[in-house]
Amino acid sequence: xxxxxxxxxxxxxxxxxxxxPLPPFKLEYVIINEDKRPLHKFGEIECFSLAEVAxxxxxxxxxxxxxxxFDFDNSDEAEIMLKIIEDxxxxxxxxxxxxxxxxxxxxxxxxxxxxxxxxxxGLTQDIKGWDVNSLSTVKLNxxxxxxxxxxxxEEVEEAPVWLKIIHGQKYKDDFDxxxxxKGSRNDALFRYSGVLQTRGFTNEQVRETLTLINDYxxxxxxxxxxxxxxxxxxxxFEAGQAAVISEFFDDKKFLHWRFAEALLEGLKVIxxxxxxxTYRNGYYQNRERTIEREMRSMYRACNIRQQN
Length: 308
What we know:
Distance between the termini: 39 Å
Radius of gyration: 21 Å
Number of strands: 15
Oligomer: single chain
Shape: globular
Helix content: 25-40%
Order of helices and strands: EHEEHEEEEEEEHHHHEEHEEEHH
Strand order of the largest sheet: 6-7-3-5-4-10
Strand content: 15-25%
Largest sheet: 6 strands, antiparallel
């Protein structure tokens, strides 16, 4: 199996992946019903210490900053994710659920709470982010869920880049890696390397992601020599250019509306009184540079195309 270097989802300059001091926090518990809903109305959720509610039959925890819960409730895909975690010895916390697993990583910039979206490996996940006060069930019908990987919170590392949500609905069929059959794998991985580049992945991050897809997600992996051809620098440039041209150009005409739609896949944006706000760290902020950075990062290949 190929050795790869993991890259964080978003990593501040000079920061370390784990072992950084955490802000003081205690896990906050919420009483829920059998349908996993809080007993109190939204905005009136009351939190307790474990000692206060340990005898309750149904409990959830509020996601503590700066951690988010990546929820895999498809049993087959949960096993794929768990295998990756174990083989790469990732420092995270993992809880077994009735249908899959909850995986906890650091996410300093927050994640929001997207549901049923595919990450860069093609696995479907929900995310329960600390920045939106998400709840995760830990006890149901009197039974505590089991921590099967209980890394100390202070040692939990930042989320790998391949947990980033990439797929819009349009990519569901073209890049359905868990169900992909022989005959389409080589072309799909080549084209997908271009899609990842348009979403801001570096060449090293693309190599890491495609290697994991091939080794763990595809039912029938490509031979090593075929994968290495796709992972060449020359192939990256070609695939990146092809993805940009296919998605954002009609002949030589730049399709601004498609560019905007793709940009909004990765940003929560609202306008209020003519001012643009992006959702970050738990609230909407008026920071146009956030959008500019995302545009430059995700679509730097557009400039190359326009210059040629």
